[in-house]
UniProtKB/TrEMBL annotation:
Family annotation (InterPro entries): ABC2_TM, ABC2_TM_bact-type, ABC_2_transport, Nod_factor_ABC_transporter
Annotated TM spans: 25-45, 57-79, 100-128, 134-156, 168-186, 224-242
Gene source species: Hamadaea flava
Keyword field contains GTP-binding: no
Name this protein carries in UniProt: Transport permease protein
């Protein structure tokens, strides 16, 4: 119970930093929103996806890019706390040892959720429409939350171990690029065979296709189980190595 209270206090501390520096969320939003505008209004007319409106096909991939961008700031915030000695000071105080780390994780979950909501709102203004019912939206929310949690624990590893702020944030670049080699922007059957094989067997494709099906009330098939397996597997492995790194801090 005490650990939960400590986590809540430290979560509030991290969220106050974001509220006082809203440019963090704004910066996270710029790239995915610009990509959404570019692909919908410039390239969208030339891309055949089998959907009436390209924005309906594109939005899930944009949401994943936004989350991948957002978790880089989790690594930066963790790196900053390590370098300033905050972890060492807090570990010498009578608070739950894992509270500071979990505070950062919860901050990542909430700040990325805000980004996702804003992007969906912009998507609605651009013509995005979903036919999902309440259960479908809950499933979409759950997948996005699990994806965010998995990447957050992944971000914690460089945040705790990097030697420079650039090193702490650089790991996010491949994650941001990964949706481009998936079905997020175009169907994979249009790709050359080596690229298609990679695209169809990497985590983003199953996650994107699950979100697309759920949002448009279509059969999900096995994609959702593959997506969940990827997210849970990444989260479990990243959590293990993040906690090992955390125990060496301070």
């Amino acid at each position: 119970m005490k650990t939960l209270r400590d986590t809540g206090v430290l979560f509030g501390r991290s969220m106050r930093h974001i509220v006082r520096s809203p440019d963090t969320i704004i910066t996270v939003l710029i790239t995915p929103v610009m990509l959404m505008l570019l692909f919908v209004y410039v390239f969208g007319g030339a891309i055949q996806t089998g959907t009436e409106k390209y924005i309906d096909y594109l939005l899930p991939g944009i949401l994943l890019i936004a989350i991948a961008s957002g978790i880089s700031y989790t690594a930066v915030r963790l790196f900053s706390d390590v370098q300033t000695g905050l972890f060492s000071r807090f570990n010498s105080m009578p608070i739950g040892r894992s509270s500071l780390l979990w505070g950062h994780v919860l901050t990542s979950m909430v700040s990325n959720a805000i980004s996702v909501v804003v992007i969906i709102g912009i998507g609605l203004l651009m013509g995005f429409r979903a036919s999902a019912d309440l259960l479908g939206w809950l499933a979409v929310t759950g997948i996005l939350a699990l994806f965010t949690l998995a990447l957050t624990w992944l971000a914690a590893i460089p945040g705790l171990t990097a030697k420079s702020i650039d090193g702490a944030s650089a790991f996010a670049y491949p994650l941001i690029f990964l949706p481009f080699i998936s079905s997020a922007f175009v169907p994979t059957d249009t790709m050359p065979t080596p690229v298609r094989v990679f695209a169809e067997n990497q985590p983003v494709t199953s996650i994107v296709e699950s979100l697309q099906s759920l949002l448009h009330d279509q059969p999900v098939g096995n994609d959702i189980w593959v997506a969940l397996a990827w997210c849970v597997g990444i989260a479990a492995i990243a959590y293990f190595f993040a906690m090992r790194a955390y125990k060496r801090v301070g």
